[in-house]
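The material for today's practical consists of a large collection of protein records. There is nothing in a record beyond a sequence line and a structure line. Backbone structure tokens are a discrete shorthand for how the chain folds in space. Nothing more is needed to start thinking about how sequence determines fold. As an example, a complete record with its sequence and its structure tokens follows.
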Amino acid sequence: MQHRCFWVTDSKLYQEYHDIEWGQPVFDDETLFEFLILETFQAGLSWITILNKRENFRKAFDSFDYNKIATYPESKYESLLLDAGIIRNKLKIRSAIINAQLFMDVQQEFGSFSAFIWSYVDNEPIINKVKERKDAPATTPLSDKISKDLKKRGFKFVGSTVMYAYMQAVGLVNDHTMDCFKYETK
């Protein structure tokens, strides 16, 4: 049996997420946007809750097509509020629409959201040396900086904790524990 990070439960869904996605560097804007939306909805909830609803989110939010989401009419917003398959938080649903619009603004300014977000780490993942739970930060000065920048641009639900989780999810930072089979030093 392979050893995984301390936070991975017996859930097959959680294990697959850890083994296949978490911490893998993501450079395509579509996936970066998907994780941005999922992480903002996760704020205050457990990640397994989001993973269990991920397919519902995909259906509800047009496969995370930020071009469509950015132009959602009020009727679509209202229908999302009634969708029991997702997190029905008024502010988070509204933020998904706002963040889609702002995501495209960043693309215009930097050529891609990927170019923008990866510039914070000089296009190379930060490799941390996490040995155990106490070594894993919830925020860092870098997540503070990214959060502040995104908030200045008008993004919602992008506090430092959310941004650090996002950095981990999309591989800007490698926080696999050193005893995890996914830990890499390069």
Q: What stands out?
A: The beta strands are 126-127, 173-174. Residues 27-174 form a domain with the Endonuclease III; domain 1 fold (CATH 1.10.340.30).
